[in-house]
Amino acid sequence: MLEMHRANHTFGAPRIHGELLKLGFTLAQSTVSKYLPRRQKPPSQSWRAFLRNHLAVVPTVTFRLLYVFVVLSLERRSLLHVNVTSHPTAAWSAQQMVEALPEETRSFIGSLRRECLDHLIVLNERQVCRILPAYARYYNCARTQLALEKDSPERRRVHGRQLGPVIAFPEVRGLHHRYERVAA
Question: How confident is the model over 100-111, as pLDDT tens digits?
């Protein structure tokens, strides 16, 4: 549990509890919370701060700004489309919506910024274009979510203890980890 927290420092008790459930452990979320190091929670933010914190703008090492476009499915909370540009236009944004899904609902996702982009030193647009699909795969296939009863958008099976020891698999170039039991 502590190893999971150290390897995924943005994971709180609910996310670690979800991972443990997928690995066949039966314990209460309060037990997980009890043994995790305490984090000081910042005070609640204003709407202005919320909007400022969730702008999809990524600064590069050379101080250029890159703009990230995200489309999220509300049904299973899966990332459907991500792209980046240094020069967003209305036409580019419209094209992203057509490429993503012509008939679905649009939504921005703050976890992309908090769990991925905020932890990178961005060199250029090409680097972000390589990272975004890796994060989308991790988000859809491995990341547990409270709204989905601690499952991922693409359902994960529970690994019983008889399958072997728990192994951590790096995701998003080691930024996050997926946990599975593997036969010895």
Answer: 765 433 337 678
* 131 to 35, 60, 63, 119: CA distances (angstroms): 32, 14, 19, 11
pLDDT, tens digit, 9 for 90 and up, residues 140-167: 999 998 888 999 999 999 998 889 999 9
pLDDT of 107 reads 36
Classify burial at 140, counting beta carbons within 10 Å of its beta carbon; exposed 0-12, middle 13-18, buried 19 or more.
middle
Which residue, 51, 58, 104, is CA-closest to 78? 104
DSSP letters of the chain?
-HHHHHH-TT--HHHHHHHHHHTT----HHHHHHHSPP-PPPPPPPHHHHHHHT--EEEBTTS-EEEEEEEE-TTT--EEEEEEESS--HHHHHHHHHHH-TTSPP---HHHHHHTGGG--B--HHHHHHHHHHHHHHHHHT--BGGGTSB-SS------GGG--EEEEEETTTTEEEEEE---
